[in-house]
What we know:
The protein has 207 residues and is mostly helical.
Amino acid sequence: MSSPEPCSRPRIEIDLASVLRRATAGVHAEIEQLPLMLRLTSETATLDDYRRYLRAIVTIHAPLEQALYARLDDTTRDRLGIVPKLPALLADMEEQSLAFNPATLAFAPGPVLLDDLSATVGGLYVLEGATLGGRTIARHLRRLIGEPLGAARFLDFHSRHTSVAWKGFTTGLNALAAQQVLVPDRVIAGALAVFEHVYKRLELAGG
Ligand code: HEM
């Protein structure tokens, strides 16, 4: 007997996006309290703080994004409506006259990443969700630093389309879960693994 197609399975409604938010709220709050991030969000944040952040985040984001996208198929990527953010980050680095060492890409977060599609999408939830807080931080830095901040393309990745982009991502995520293309527990495990990796690396980078 052949196995049923995903679309013939009963739909299980789950707001996976909300479940993910709750499951990762603790580690997200811990990230916000790291010295590097506290400096960025303080009322005395400087251009040097922003540059320090760029130097740290590129060593974390670049290998992570590369590894996660390599595990993703085109259909799922299109349904989630996501695109790589590394080009924006590299443009910000160039604007700030910061060098990017391509050897960074060799530091793949291999062992912390889980291999299946659900866990991969969980990891991409972390990278996509970061654009929400990123927009708030970009506004804050623009107010304090002004023009020398530059475009802040990475932090303010979706700019005024942030809400629409997030709605698209969470709608795609919930639809894939409803169709049982994604296994919620694995998505959560993938998101937590990536969040913890980001936490540890930011802690090391920002001391
Ligand atoms: C100082 C550092 C940070 C601040 C102040 C911050 C702030 C925020 C804010 C304000 C939101 C939006 C919450 C909402 O719309 O209700 C958010 C969402 C989010 N942030 Fe951060 N963030 C920070 C760092 C990060 C980092 C480094 C990551 C991961 C790389 C991250 C991942 C996320 C995710 C995944 C969400 C979506 C949560 C959800 O609604 O499901 N954040 N953040």
